[in-house]
Amino acid sequence: MDQAKARGPYAKTPARRAEIVRAARGSFAEHGYAKASLRDIAERAGITHAGLLHHFRNKDELLAEVLADRDSEEWQQGLDEVERPDQLGPYLAELIRHHQKAPELMRLWIELAAAASRPDHPAHTYFVERYERSRAQFVDGFPDEAARGRLREGVSPESAAVLFQAVLNGLQLQWVLDQDLDIVGPVTDFVRLLFTRDDTVDAV
After folding, report:
1. Across the strands, what pairs with 195?
2. Average pLDDT value for residue range 29-53
3. If DSSP codes are grouped into helix, strand and coil, which group holds residue 121?
4. What pLDDT does residue 79 have?
5. Angle between helix 103-115 and 14-31 (nearest 10)
6. Residue 37 and residue 24: Cα distance in Å, rounded?
7. How many Å apart are CA 204 and CA 182, to the nearest integer?
């Protein structure tokens, strides 16, 4: 790309930022965060290094955007695919298998989530709101007594939402540490334990 074209109408548009984020996602997954370079990401996105810095100040900021973008995709996918409790187990199993195809992104997400526990971290507010939104979505899936009756006796939707996040995140952390560990089976077992009917989780 020549310099005039790079400086021209490559301004801060959502489309251009999305291209950079996709390029960064590929670079992080292929090389790991530490070895991925902004120059490689810029080349993948078809812009200059200076052009990339026009949109993202540094690699940390770009990583946060990559992980937020992945979250957004999976959030919409969950809304589209999970309408009933019996769809939850197969969806989670497939989601985990998808994450296992890019273990570096899984590791980076875990590291960023832990770092963001500090109130002064730039991603702190994002993660707080992300977990709040996820819990609210789970609870909204049980709008009446009939729906709540599907949960194990004595377990409230609010408690189940917290357990759901803890189990899903904890299993993925264990897998990052030991990639021979089966975590698909345990997550589907957890869904079976959470709901009262044996047919809640289909075969996966």
Report:
1. 151
2. 90
3. coil
4. 73
5. 110
6. 9
7. 13
* DSSP code at position 47: S
Please report which helix (H) or strand (E) contains residue 124, including its range. Answer: helix 124-140
Return the amino acid letter for 27: S
Residue 165: exposure state from Cβ atoms within 10 A (0-12, 13-18, ≥19): middle
Residue with tokens 């264990």: 174
Structure tokens that stand for 141 in this block:
């899936």
**Up-side HSE of residue 27: CA atoms within 13 Å toward CB?**
23
pTM for the model stands at 0.72
CA atoms of 14 and 21, how far apart (whole Å): 10
> Would you call 41 helix, strand, or coil by DSSP?
helix
Give helix 157-177 / helix 184-194 axis angle, nearest 10°.
170
